[in-house]
Structures are given as structure tokens and as C-alpha cells.
């Protein structure tokens, strides 16, 4: 059992110069258009996300097409680059449907037959940031957890059923629906808005990632892929989403740590900066170590996904099991070490806590990823 | 510059000229040193070729495949990890020529005479005195403690106070001490494991020639920083495979003893497995940064992570083993050559790992270092910085 374990591949855990350049571009845009005050103000508005910002990010910088080959209308980059975008989106808690549309929906379409115009068309539209798409599964769905569809497709392709807690569903123009048809489960494309498609917004814990229940009542759908191909496409999309979510969690944790260090260095009590008290220093130093470790885990997952490595499922499970709690702890420490100001609506710390906590449940809670590891690493349950 | 292909060729030449099967171990190690393949990042003539550190792996892999003997780094860790980089940075040409070769081949074991009964975490408070004698040398008196391998060592790196009238950080000097000097007395200290890996060392009128001073008089603290920093880099720089080290022992136990499994232990093992894998990746990332010449601050954190993991994994293992966890392999006072974490029973691992968060800087002190030097948090107010050493309360 130990032999396959020790043959871990040699990942590239650093950032390339191109990846750093991409980071600079995304960070500059977010600093300009999505500072915390803007994010807070936006949450009070009726719009689920800032369309101008999304256009600049997705189309302007071209991040929506990073995972898509050039011949299919994308930028021909990889999960490594998309991970860098997600780090920055985590660092700014910007409400942008990047994970749902540019990562998960795009990966699901890439798993279908891209020689078909029915697939290539919507894929190019997503890659260019013209269309927003989501995979219509509950945000909590872990890799390997899609299970039996809750939606039925009749022989004419009309879809009926309900999917709860779909992230970014209300704003989506393309829904990728996992539905049970006359010949077994298949992945269907549903355009929205349309007759028979109803989304019902729920009040989310994480205000920066809108959630909606989706009800389909004879909604017109097209089959994108069926059988094993469809299953694999959905599975790959969930795996990629979970693996790259680790980079978003890293970004969240980094912001929380940096902001906490900044605040405790400036805030004075008992005649000295509170950051000079060892009780706080040790907590921040311990957090730093976790953040540095989360970076290694997240880079490893991104690298494994980028290279199509057979190690990817294990790398993703490790990254999610590790990074999700680190982001939550960083956000919780951030609030505690800020004192009263950290409890206010005005201070952005709560946005990070809500995102980190929701991200912990997204795409499988840590326990699910550890359960997956029990299989992958040959450590069976009792 | 030397590249991987060049190193492979040099390694092949070494193996051809000194076939491991027919060459004495020591002769092979000396030849390897002289060929510059001992530590390729060291300068030519001192066991290296001035090549990037990362390329050492190329040489090691070739030599391992050829069945060449190694220099048993577990036995000479203090020499390799601490004395050597300090000699390289602060030693004179003569000192480097004299000391590095037998250090690397293991002919001469080194130990570290730093800690004292009154100076542990606060190393700069140390009281061992070095006074100049008439004949351009030094006479040293004092007591050191927790000195690992002192009973095996030929040489020691030593810090002593040369000026008690200035603040503590300024009045120290760094020496190479001859452990065979008649004034050196080594007494075993028995540890919680039963064995005596470390010692107390009494220094009474020990003579050290000025030629064995490292760095300037009064600059001992600066030199010691190099030693301590390298200790931490050495820990982060070790490459381990997935499930290498203690987690591999625990995972194997889990696979081999299904009758002992419980759900609680399963959950905790999976958590530790994840943390061990992430620590491995963090070390790997650090290594990649170092080899690209971007030394990251992750190094100071690696020792913290490894100490905690070693303690938690070994604690888990004793608990998992149930009745076997109640037993211990051997309490006799032994004088081991080095630390063998995987060769003995779980109880030994559990007890020995307690030292991981104390030796080489306690975890609390390392957290201070990360907080102040990596995160830039303000220091705590100090009362001892500007006071002459002799006037400090003790
Ligand atoms: C197995 C082993 C091998 C060793 N080998 C060697 C060796 O070969 N050579 C050598 O010179 N030394 C060696 N040491 C000694 C080691 O470096 C010291 O034990 C260590 O630096 C701690 O010093 P101390 O024991 O005096 O503890 P103290 O410094 O007295 O520490 C006691 C407690 O106080 C805490 N503490 C101290 N200062 C602070 C602070 N500023 N902030 C917060 N907490 C603080 C510590 O973390 C610790 O918990 C070895 C130790 C062990 C356990």
C-alpha cells in the first residue's frame, strides 16, 4: 500500500512570471473597482453582482477563458492561472461569478463533445464572458457527490424538477442541468430566462455569492452529453471547482492575516501596540504558518488539475480538507483581534467571515474530502 | 555553470575511479569530497563545485542507484547542518581546509556548546567565560548543558563571553573547541526516553588557540545567528516522499491492524495525514523557492509544523496500539549515535518527539521570531537590551 503513496509526482508549487503578471492585472482592477466600501455598498443594491466589474475582469482582462483552449475561443491557459484569479477574488471578496461560470460551468462544457456546435457555441460565449453559465447543482455538492438527478427530462427534452441552493443561478443565462432522461442521466443546456424556469433567491449567509432555488417546470432543454461522458463532465467540473476553491480560500486567509497584522500594529492599548502582546503575536504567527501551508496545498491542487495528473483527486481532497478550515480560522481570528470594530457592519471583516464559512460548505465540507482521502490513500474506515 | 548533465558525468567518473563494491567506505567518501560532489553548492576545493544547491539531488540519486556508501547524516547532523555553514561563512581559509573534509566524511563528529543552565531561550545571557592568555590564545571556563553527541564529538562550536562589561549581545565570541582538551569533561544526562543522547559539559581552563576563533572578537552573536538560521533551513530543506517519516509508520500500523480501528482514530488519522502531506508540500515549496534563489520566510515555520506533527502523530500511534501502547521497548541507559525516529517503538517516538518543540529553539521562541521577523509585529518591551551583562539580574 505504501508504494503508490510514495510515488507522489513532482509539482511546480511556485508562480511563473506570467502568473504574477496576471495577478497584478486582476489585483489592480479589483483595487480600483471593488474596494471593500464598494463591495459593501453593492450588497445593499438589488443587483446580484457588479456587471461592469465582471465585464472588465472576464472580457477586458480575459480571465473567463483561461481554462478554454484558444481554438475554442479561450485564452488557452490552465487551472494554475485560474487559481491566481481566484486568490485575488478571495482577497477582495468581490462578488463575481468566476468560480461558478468560468471554472465549473466551463469545465463541464469542456467535458462534453466540443466538436458539436451545441457545445462549442455556449463554451465560446462563456469563455469570452458574454454569457454567464452555472452548473445547476447545490453549492454543497462534493466531487463524487452529484448522485441521482433531482430533475427529469421527458422524450422532448422538457425538464421538470427542483435544484436547491444553486450559486449565481439567478443571474445565469445558461443553466447546465443534470437530469434523468428516458435513456439515463444526461447533462442538458437550458437557456434562461425562459418559460418554465423559475429562480427563487434565498437570503445567503455569504452575501457576496448569491444563491437561488431553481424550479424547472417543462423547461426546454438540449442534451449536451449523456451517460458516462455526462457523468465524467460533471465530476471533472466539481473536482476542478473544489480544487480551485482552495486558492480562493487562500486569498481570503491572506487578506485576513495581513489586515489583522496591520490593525494590531496600529491599535494602542496599555501604552503599547496590541500587536506587541505575545498572546496575539503567537496567534498571528501560527496563522501565518497555516497560510503558508495553505498556499502549498492550493498550488499543488492547481498544478495537478492543470497537468491532468492522476494525482488530482488526492491533491484536491488534501487542499480542500486543509484550506477550508484555514480560511475560516483566519476570518475568525481577524474579527477577534480587531475587537469591537470587527463586529461592525461597516468593517469588511464580516464579509470575509461569511465567505470563508460558506466556502467551507461549498463543494464538500472538509469531512467529505477526508472521507474521499480514506479511499484515495488506502486508509479504510473501521 | 555546472548543470545536471555535468554532475552526472562527474558522478560517473567518481564511480568508475572508485567502484563502491571494491572501495573502502571512508576512501570513497574522501574521494567524493575531493571530486566536489559532497555538497555541490560549496566552493571548489571544499567539497563542492559552486553549483546550485538543488542539483545535489541529481548526485545523490546517481550515487544511491550505484549503491555508494553515504556519510550517515543522522550521526553528524550538527556538523553538517550547523558547524559547516558557519565555518563556510566565517572561517579562515585554513580553518575551512582543516575542518570541512573530516566533518563531511564523518571522521570527526561535531557538537554544539551553546546552551547553559542559565541561558537557554535567552542564549545571549550565557556566562561561560573566555579570557585571553599570554600566548595568543584563550582560556575557557564554564558549564554547558543539553549537549547532544558531546560524548562522540571531536570538535564543538562554542560561544563564550569575552566582555562582561557591555550589553549581553555584544560581548560574545565564537570558537571551535577541541573536545579532547583535558579541561573538557562530558557527563551523560539521561533523558525521558531512558537513553542519554545529550550531556552536560564542564569546561575548566580549556585552552583554545586564537586560530580557532570564528569571526571577530565580540561578534559571536552574529556568527551564532548563521548557525541557528542554518539549523532551521536544514530542517525545511530535507526532501521527504509522501507518507515519509512518522505519518508513514502510523499509516502502516493502521493498514496492518484492522482489529484496532475505531471511528474516532480514523478521523484523527485522516486529519494528521492531510497535515503531514501539506507540511511535506510546504517544505517542497520552500525547496523550490531556494533553488530559484527566492528564499522565502517559510523556513522558520517548518520546524514549528514538524514538531507539532511529530508529537501528535506519535501520540496517536501509542493510543491506536492499545495494549501494545502500554509497553516500552527498552529503558536501559544507552548512548545512541543519533536519533532514530522510525527504528524503535511507538512509545520511544512519543517521548523523543517531546524534544522537537524544545531543541533548536522552542516553539514559543520560534513563534516570536515569525511574529517579529516575518510579520513585522512590534517587539515586546525589553529591560535587558542596554544593560551591561554583568549588571543583569540572574
Ligand atoms: C533533545 C534536546 C537536544 C538539545 N541539544 C542541544 C545541543 O546539542 N546543544 C545546545 O547548545 N543545546 C541543546 N539543546 C538545548 C535547547 O536549545 C534548549 O533547551 C532550548 O533552547 C530551551 O532552553 P531552556 O531549556 O533553557 O528552556 P527555557 O528557555 O528556560 O524555556 C522554558 C519555557 O519558557 C518558554 N520561553 C522562554 N523564553 C520565552 C519567550 N521569550 N517567550 C515565550 N516563551 C518563552 C520556552 O518556550 C519554554 O517553554 C537541546 C535540547 C533538547 C531538548
From TrEMBL, chain A:
<dbReference type="InterPro" id="IPR013786">
    <property type="entry name" value="AcylCoA_DH/ox_N"/>
</dbReference>
<dbReference type="GO" id="GO:0003995">
    <property type="term" value="F:acyl-CoA dehydrogenase activity"/>
</dbReference>
<dbReference type="InterPro" id="IPR009100">
    <property type="entry name" value="AcylCoA_DH/oxidase_NM_dom_sf"/>
</dbReference>
<comment type="similarity">
    <text>Belongs to the acyl-CoA dehydrogenase family.</text>
</comment>
<dbReference type="InterPro" id="IPR046373">
    <property type="entry name" value="Acyl-CoA_Oxase/DH_mid-dom_sf"/>
</dbReference>
<dbReference type="InterPro" id="IPR009075">
    <property type="entry name" value="AcylCo_DH/oxidase_C"/>
</dbReference>
<dbReference type="GO" id="GO:0050660">
    <property type="term" value="F:flavin adenine dinucleotide binding"/>
</dbReference>
<keyword id="KW-0274">FAD</keyword>
<dbReference type="Pfam" id="PF02771">
    <property type="entry name" value="Acyl-CoA_dh_N"/>
</dbReference>
<keyword id="KW-0285">Flavoprotein</keyword>
<feature type="domain" description="Acyl-CoA dehydrogenase/oxidase C-terminal">
    <location>
        <begin position="235"/>
        <end position="375"/>
    </location>
</feature>
<feature type="domain" description="Acyl-CoA dehydrogenase/oxidase N-terminal">
    <location>
        <begin position="17"/>
        <end position="102"/>
    </location>
</feature>
<keyword id="KW-0560">Oxidoreductase</keyword>
<protein>
    <submittedName>
        <fullName>Acyl-CoA dehydrogenase</fullName>
    </submittedName>
</protein>
<dbReference type="InterPro" id="IPR036250">
    <property type="entry name" value="AcylCo_DH-like_C"/>
</dbReference>
<dbReference type="InterPro" id="IPR037069">
    <property type="entry name" value="AcylCoA_DH/ox_N_sf"/>
</dbReference>
<dbReference type="Pfam" id="PF00441">
    <property type="entry name" value="Acyl-CoA_dh_1"/>
</dbReference>
UniProtKB/TrEMBL annotation, chain B:
<dbReference type="InterPro" id="IPR009100">
    <property type="entry name" value="AcylCoA_DH/oxidase_NM_dom_sf"/>
</dbReference>
<dbReference type="Pfam" id="PF02770">
    <property type="entry name" value="Acyl-CoA_dh_M"/>
</dbReference>
<dbReference type="InterPro" id="IPR046373">
    <property type="entry name" value="Acyl-CoA_Oxase/DH_mid-dom_sf"/>
</dbReference>
<comment type="similarity">
    <text>Belongs to the acyl-CoA dehydrogenase family.</text>
</comment>
<dbReference type="Pfam" id="PF02771">
    <property type="entry name" value="Acyl-CoA_dh_N"/>
</dbReference>
<dbReference type="GO" id="GO:0005886">
    <property type="term" value="C:plasma membrane"/>
</dbReference>
<feature type="domain" description="Acyl-CoA dehydrogenase/oxidase C-terminal">
    <location>
        <begin position="218"/>
        <end position="375"/>
    </location>
</feature>
<dbReference type="InterPro" id="IPR052161">
    <property type="entry name" value="Mycobact_Acyl-CoA_DH"/>
</dbReference>
<feature type="domain" description="Acyl-CoA oxidase/dehydrogenase middle">
    <location>
        <begin position="111"/>
        <end position="196"/>
    </location>
</feature>
<dbReference type="InterPro" id="IPR036250">
    <property type="entry name" value="AcylCo_DH-like_C"/>
</dbReference>
<dbReference type="InterPro" id="IPR013786">
    <property type="entry name" value="AcylCoA_DH/ox_N"/>
</dbReference>
<keyword id="KW-0285">Flavoprotein</keyword>
<dbReference type="GO" id="GO:0050660">
    <property type="term" value="F:flavin adenine dinucleotide binding"/>
</dbReference>
<feature type="domain" description="Acyl-CoA dehydrogenase/oxidase N-terminal">
    <location>
        <begin position="27"/>
        <end position="107"/>
    </location>
</feature>
<protein>
    <submittedName>
        <fullName>Acyl-CoA dehydrogenase</fullName>
    </submittedName>
</protein>
<dbReference type="GO" id="GO:0016627">
    <property type="term" value="F:oxidoreductase activity, acting on the CH-CH group of donors"/>
</dbReference>
<keyword id="KW-0560">Oxidoreductase</keyword>
<dbReference type="Pfam" id="PF00441">
    <property type="entry name" value="Acyl-CoA_dh_1"/>
</dbReference>
<dbReference type="InterPro" id="IPR006091">
    <property type="entry name" value="Acyl-CoA_Oxase/DH_mid-dom"/>
</dbReference>
<keyword id="KW-0274">FAD</keyword>
<dbReference type="InterPro" id="IPR037069">
    <property type="entry name" value="AcylCoA_DH/ox_N_sf"/>
</dbReference>
<dbReference type="InterPro" id="IPR009075">
    <property type="entry name" value="AcylCo_DH/oxidase_C"/>
</dbReference>
Amino acid at each position: 500500500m505504501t508504494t503508490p503513496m510514495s510515488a507522489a509526482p513532482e509539482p511546480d508549487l511556485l508562480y511563473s512570471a506570467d502568473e504574477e503578471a496576471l495577478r497584478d492585472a486582476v489585483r489592480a482592477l479589483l483595487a480600483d473597482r471593488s474596494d471593500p466600501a464598494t463591495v459593501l455598498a453593492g450588497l445593499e443594491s438589488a443587483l446580484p453582482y457588479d456587471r461592469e466589474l465582471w465585464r472588465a475582469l472576464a472580457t477586458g482582462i480575459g480571465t473567463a477563458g483561461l481554462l478554454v483552449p484558444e481554438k475554442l475561443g479561450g485564452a488557452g491557459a490552465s487551472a494554475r492561472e485560474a487559481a491566481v484569479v481566484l486568490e485575488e477574488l478571495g482577497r477582495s471578496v468581490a462578488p463575481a461569478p468566476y468560480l461558478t461560470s468560468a471554472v465549473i460551468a466551463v469545465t463541464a462544457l469542456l467535458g462534453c463533445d466540443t466538436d458539436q456546435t451545441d457545445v462549442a457555441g455556449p463554451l465560446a460565449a462563456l469563455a469570452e464572458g458574454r454569457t454567464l453559465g452555472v452548473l445547476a447543482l447545490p453549492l454543497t455538492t462534493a466531487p463524487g457527490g452529484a448522485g441521482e438527478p433531482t430533475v427529469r427530462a421527458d422524450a422532448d427534452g422538457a425538464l421538470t424538477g427542483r435544484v436547491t441552493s444553486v450559486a449565481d443561478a439567478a443571474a445565469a443565462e445558461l443553466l447546465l442541468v443534470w437530469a434523468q432522461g428516458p435513456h439515463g442521466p444526461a447533462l442538458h443546456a437550458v437557456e434562461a430566462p425562459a418559460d418554465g424556469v423559475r429562480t427563487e433567491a434565498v437570503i445567503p449567509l455569504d452575501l457576496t455569492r448569491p444563491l437561488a432555488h431553481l424550479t424547472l417546470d417543462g423547461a426546454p432543454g438540449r442534451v449536451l452529453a449523456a451517460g458516462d461522458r455526462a457523468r465524467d463532465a460533471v465530476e471533472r467540473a466539481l473536482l476542478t471547482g473544489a480544487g480551485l476553491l482552495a486558492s480562493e480560500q487562500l486569498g481570503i486567509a491572506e487578506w485576513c492575516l495581513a489586515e489583522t497584522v496591520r490593525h494590531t500594529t496600529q491599535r494602542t492599548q496599555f501604552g503599547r501596540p496590541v500587536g506587541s502582546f505575545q498572546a496575539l503575536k503567537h496567534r498571528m504567527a501560527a496563522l501565518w504558518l497555516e497560510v503558508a501551508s495553505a498556499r502549498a496545498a492550493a498550488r499543488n491542487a492547481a498544478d495537478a488539475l492543470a497537468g491532468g495528473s492522476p494525482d488530482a483527486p488526492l491533491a484536491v481532497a488534501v487542499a480542500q480538507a486543509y484550506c477550508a478550515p484555514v480560511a475560516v480560522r483566519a476570518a475568525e481570528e481577524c474579527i477577534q483581534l480587531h475587537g469591537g470594530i470587527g463586529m461592525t457592519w461597516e468593517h469588511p471583516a464580516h464579509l470575509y467571515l461569511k465567505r470563508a464559512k460558506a466556502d467551507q460548505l461549498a463543494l464538500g465540507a472538509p469531512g467529505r474530502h477526508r472521507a474521499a482521502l480514506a479511499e484515495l490513500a488506502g486508509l479504510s474506515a473501521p | 555553470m555546472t548543470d545536471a548533465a555535468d554532475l552526472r558525468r562527474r558522478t560517473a567518473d567518481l564511480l568508475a575511479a572508485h567502484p563502491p563494491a571494491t572501495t573502502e567506505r571512508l576512501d570513497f567518501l574522501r574521494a567524493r569530497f575531493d571530486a566536489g560532489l559532497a555538497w555541490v553548492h560549496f566552493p571548489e576545493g571544499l567539497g563542492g563545485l559552486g553549483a546550485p544547491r538543488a542539483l545535489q539531488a541529481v548526485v545523490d540519486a546517481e550515487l544511491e542507484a550505484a549503491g555508494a556508501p553515504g556519510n550517515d547524516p543522522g550521526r553528524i547532523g550538527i556538523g553538517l547542518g550547523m558547524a559547516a555553514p558557519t565555518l563556510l561563512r566565517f572561517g579562515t581559509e585554513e580553518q575551512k581546509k582543516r575542518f570541512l573534509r573530516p566533518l563531511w566524511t564523518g571522521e570527526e563528529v561535531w557538537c554544539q556548546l551553546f546552551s547553559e543552565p542559565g541561558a537557554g531561550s535567552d542564549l545571549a545571557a550565557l556566562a561561560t567565560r573566555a579570557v585571553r592568555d599570554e600566548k595568543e590564545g584563550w582560556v575557557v571556563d564554564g558549564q554547558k548543558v543539553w549537549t547532544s553527541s558531546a560524548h562522540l564529538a571531536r570538535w564543538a562550536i562554542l560561544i563564550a563571553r569575552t566582555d562582561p562589561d557591555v550589553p549581553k549581545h555584544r560581548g560574545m565570541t565564537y570558537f571551535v573547541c577541541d573536545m579532547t582538551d583535558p579541561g573538557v569533561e562530558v557527563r551523560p544526562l539521561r533523558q525521558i526516553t531512558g537513553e542519554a543522547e545529550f550531556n552536560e559539559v564542564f569546561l575548566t581552563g580549556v585552552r583554545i588557540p586564537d586560530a580557532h576563533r570564528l569571526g571577530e572578537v565580540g561578534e559571536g552573536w552574529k556568527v551564532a545567528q548563521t548557525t541557528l538560521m542554518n539549523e532551521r533551513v536544514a530542517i525545511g530543506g530535507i526532501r521527504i516522499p509522501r507518507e515519509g517519516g512518522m505519518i508513514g509508520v502510523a499509516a502502516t500500523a493502521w493498514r496492518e491492524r484492522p482489529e484496532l480501528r475505531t471511528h474516532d482514530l480514523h478521523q484523527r488519522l485522516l486529519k494528521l495525514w492531510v497535515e503531514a502531506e501539506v507540511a511535506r508540500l510546504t517544505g517542497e515549496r520552500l525547496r523550490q523557492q531556494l533553488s530559484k534563489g527566492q528564499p522565502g520566510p517559510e523556513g522558520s515555520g517548518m520546524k514549528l509544523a514538524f514538531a507539532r506533527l511529530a508529537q501528535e502523530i506519535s501520540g496517536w500511534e501509542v493510543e491506536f496500539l492499545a495494549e501494545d501502547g502500554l509497553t516500552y521497548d527498552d529503558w536501559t541507559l544507552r548512548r545512541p549515535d543519533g536519533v532514530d525516529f522510525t527504528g524503535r517503538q511507538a512509545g520511544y517516538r512519543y517521548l523523543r518527539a517531546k524534544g522537537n518543540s524544545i531543541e533548536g529553539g522552542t516553539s514559543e521562541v520560534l513563534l516570536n521570531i515569525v511574529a517579529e521577523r516575518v510579520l513585522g509585529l512590534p517587539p515586546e518591551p525589553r529591560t535587558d537590551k542596554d544593560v551591561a551583562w554583568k549588571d543583569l539580574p540572574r
